[in-house]
Amino acid sequence: MRAHWPRLIAYTLLVAGMAFCRADFLDDVFYNIDEGEYVVAADALGHGWLPGLDLLGSSKTPAIAFLCYTLFHLFGRSLAVIHVAQLVMVIATGLLVIEIARRWWGAKALIPAALLFWIASNSFSLPQRVLSLNVESPGLLFAVFALWLLLTATDSVAFLTAGIALGIAIMFRQSFVFFLIPAFYLANASERRWRALRLVGAGIAGSWLLLLVPYAVRGGLGWAFDSWVRYPLDYASDIGLTGYFEALWLNSIEFAQREWPVLLLALIGAVVLWRDRKILRGKFLFLLAMGSFLALSSGSRFTGQYWIQTYPALALFAVAGWMSLAARRKILRMGLVALVAVGALLSLGHFPFWRVWDPSVPPKGISPYALGEDQAERLAGDFAKQRTGPDDTILVWGYCPQIYYHAHRLPGVRDYIMHYVTGFSPGAFRPLEERAPRSSGHLRAQEMFLDDLTGRRPQYIFDLSDISSGEFPFVQYPITFYPPIAAYVRANYAPDTVLSGVLVYRLKSPLSNLPASSEQL
């Protein structure tokens, strides 16, 4: 039993530390507007719709929608459910990092790995970004699980399972493809090299084949490519090469200001591990660092949750630094204690006291992405829910997928977050460019939009272009800027009411498919 105490203590430190920092934020609110996109896609799955085909505009591959759908199905439809799941997944990733550290340095590395992963995970970024169920958390869990399997694999099942896990990781975020670098190195270094490589490759290919079959059956592979490859590349590259490196530099400085204790230990560890660069441990860790950095740098925005992909590599290099300092003279050991203590204090003062040090944070129970103090998105959702049936659709003109979630209703158009029609994208630098899906041939974005309005017949339109208080206001994109759509709405919809600045139009009966004019609404 005594031999298991270090592992038990390490596990307890990680779980208790994560719970202390994050348990107060397991609310039924949207911490990130991306969560709105994911839960709407999850609701759509329940009606047989496919993300990237029946819903367009989100740049993420569809695993996150399947995850949210599964969580809702098992535990109930609540945002608190997905936040608890996010916390569990981060803890599970930390436990795997602890086990990888034990693999390389033995039982004496268990507690350092727990402390350093905990510090790295809780020191940086706005909590609303890191506390949300973003795609990085589940994707990283599957990627690290695959690497752990490859480190311990003794049979074909383990290699195949690792490949499947890697395939699923890429389904959460395309950048996890770079974790194939350390994964294939481990497979290549195994005793049954070629068999291991084939099995890992088969697992990746098999998982993606299973995903693509439903899209192929419905003739949607072109749409899937556009949604998961072409559109994300456009989204990630719109600031140019100079802007990209400037964003990388500025974000790296901000990251270092919060993570410097762990970073300093990781730099010491990198120097120590450079001696091991030609053996398995050194090669693997440097390739893991390479894959992590490439995954982080695969887009131009470098928002807080992107850095989650670097935490396992950062923690493992820091463990190497810890082990080196702990074996040296007393003054260096004292410096190690001071570094870890400062890092722990930074973590303890970051998330738990978010509402103290961040004056812009909303009160508990209110989303940072609420439409004004009276939460107009909830008012609009309740209005639609009370006046429509479960099979009816609605349309939100604006970037606010939360309304669909609160309404329990699906979007009346494929372009449900207005990316293709308006070109709007949070943080975009070409906001007025019309982005038409190339896989649709001659069908331009507005034509597709009108075709959906006719086919899905949304019962209500919620126009957000008069609201300027939201995180992503739509005042630059009134419907009247798009004459064919404005004419259709004028001919087929009538003003109904105004909900805290949200203009609401209801469907006329009978429906007319021919626009009357392009006059203002």
Looking at this protein, list some descriptive labels.
single chain, 521 residues, mainly alpha, five-stranded mixed β-sheet, 21 helices, 59% helix, disordered C terminus
Please give the structural blueprint.
Elements: H1 5-22, H2 33-45, H3 63-75, H4 79-105, H5 110-122, H6 127-130, H7 136-152, H8 156-172, H9 180-189, H10 193-217, H11 221-236, H12 240-274, H13 280-296, H14 311-326, H15 330-348, H16 354-357, H17 376-387, E1 393-397, H18 402-407, E2 410-411, H19 419-422, H20 445-456, E3 460-463, H21 483-492, E4 493-499, E5 502-507
Parallel strand pairs: 1-2, 1-3
Antiparallel strand pairs: 3-5, 4-5
Number of DSSP E strands? 5
In helices, the fraction of residues equals: 55-70%
Q: Indicate the multimeric state.
A: single chain
Largest sheet: 5 strands, mixed
Strand content: under 5%
Task: Record the strand order, biggest sheet.
Answer: 2-1-3-5-4
**What's the number of helices?**
21
Kindly report the average pLDDT value: 88
Low-confidence stretches: 431-443, 513-521
Q: How far apart, in Å, are the first and last alpha carbons?
A: 75 Å
Form type? globular
Order of helices and strands: HHHHHHHHHHHHHHHHHEHEHHEHEE
Structure classification: mainly alpha
Q: Using only CA atoms, what is the Rg?
A: 25 Å
